[in-house]
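Consortium newsletter contribution from the modelling node. Members have asked for a concrete example of what our holo predictions look like. Here is one, prepared for the guanosine-5'-diphosphate complex that several groups have been discussing at recent meetings.
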Amino acid sequence: SLTLGIVGLPNVGKSTLFNALTRNDALAANYPFATIEPNVGVVPLPDPRLGKLAEIFDSAKVVPAVVSFVDIAGIVKGASEGAGLGNKFLANIREANAICQVIRVFDDPDVVHVEGKIDPLSDIETINTELILADLQTLEKALPRLEKEARTRKEHRPALENAQHAKAILDSGRTLFAAQGEVDLPALRELNLLTTKPFLYVFNADEGVLTDKDRRAELTELVAPADAVFLDAKVEAELLELDDEESVRELLESVGQEEPGLYALTRAGFHTLGLQTYLTAGPKEARAWTIPKGATAPQAAGVIHSDFERGFIKAEVVSFDDLVEAGSMAAARAAGKVRMEGKDYVMADGDVVEFRFNV
Ligand code: GDP
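And here is the predicted structure:
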């Protein structure tokens, strides 16, 4: 499954956030480089539609989609120079499908800031610089081969030109993700570069920032086109200790949040990975299934079982909203809201589906 790699400078709250995401109690220590081994956390994607479906179909249980986060070791600066932990850091990022950078915007004199001050732009650039330098090394190694291929076969010329263009972008200090309109990212896939991966930014903030609309807009603008999520990792951890809804609501209110930041983070992670869900429901379960955006009906069926993809005949599809409005599958059918879709149908988020297939 696809994963988001959590990165960030030491002491920005990565472990606190990761532990809250996975509810485990691994050490969140107040000193740099506390997190060395990467960890994987599988987090359910909050989806209120499932509860509603379970009501309509009288389903015995609800099975949400999940998002996988990998906590990547804390070494950042100098990683591209190679030694030991630096190599491991980059290798772990290479395995991730998207990069989730945690940025500290909370102020706390008791927690040492490795750069001495709160400066989101500088933190972003520190990470970007290491990834850019690593990509430049990869490109410099690959270019002689690409040049040779372009000399012998002219159809290989666009690949060379694209790689040269990518190098120029990196030389100017920009990530390839940020320059996505100017370079052919899919054509670079074989090089497995780091900065082509989609980025997501988590601002680990305190109440002052969380309730300050202008500051949030400024930070959102800073990282666009990437998604920005705002939360207070310490509050997120505290929320998990509370067992009554009233206390949860009060604590959220005190930091100006409508829902736990972890929900927004999980949704943004799912979105950043280019994923969407479709839904199935019956007496056994109401369930969300994960597919890439743009997946066709047979591909979607294949996520349930490979036999479903091979033997696909058609899909009976109703949008979630139409189903809820009709109140039942039978009523949706009677209202003409249930469509029969063939093998070229491209799935929409929130389609409620029943597949017909041969075995
Ligand atoms: P990491 O090095 O990025 O993994 O950072 P940790 O999660 O270990 O956090 C470093 C220190 O900052 C710990 O003492 C945390 O309790 C503290 N911390 C983390 N998030 C917050 C936050 O949102 N607000 C405050 N005040 N402290 C935090």
